[in-house]
Amino acid sequence: MVRRANRNDIRGIISLLHQVNMVHHELRPDLFKANTTKYNEQELETLLGDESKPVFVYTDDEGSVVGHAFCQLTEVKDHGLLQDAKTLYIDDICVDASARGHHVGKALYEHVSQYARAVGCHNITLNVWEGNDPAMAFYRSMGMQVQKTGMEALL
């Protein structure tokens, strides 16, 4: 049920991106516009061909996309301060509102975790907006812990 996304999944992914955007807009309307998406169809098609930015989807029995995980591989090599390490960053993970509570998010996260291990990653990282308590609880239940904290002062 979890696999790499392809061109046929773009419409379903766009629908999920709208849901993600609205979560962010409701939390931070000062930063996020309503009723838009991070990528358009053409940008998604290009992204799906980028091996350093794998996108995974969870499909239901009818083949409809009900969850996605946008990832990005990064690697530190020969840095003066940091250890060499390959990281898989989860840029975006979303489960359709109608499929929540059915372990879609868990299946996506476990698939991404297995992928990260298979390609030699040291860790998985992601960012969660303050106030997105359901996401925080989910990631903690997957075994994640706080790595660092970003702070701001609104002016």
- Low-confidence spans: none
Q: What string, H for helix and E for strand, traces the elements in order? A: EHHEEEHEH
Work out the helicity level.
25-40%
| Estimated radius of gyration | 16 Å
Average pLDDT metric: 97
Report strand %.
15-25%
Class inferred from helices and paired strands: alpha+beta
- C-alpha termini separation: 46 Å
The shape, in one word, is: globular
Please give the largest β-sheet: 5 strands, mixed
- DSSP, total strands: 5
Strand order of the largest sheet: 1-2-3-4-5
Folded structure, characterized:
The structure is a single chain. The protein is built from 4 helices and 5 strands. With 155 residues, it is of the alpha+beta class. The termini are far apart. The longest helix is centred in the N-terminal third of the chain and has 18 residues, at 10-27.
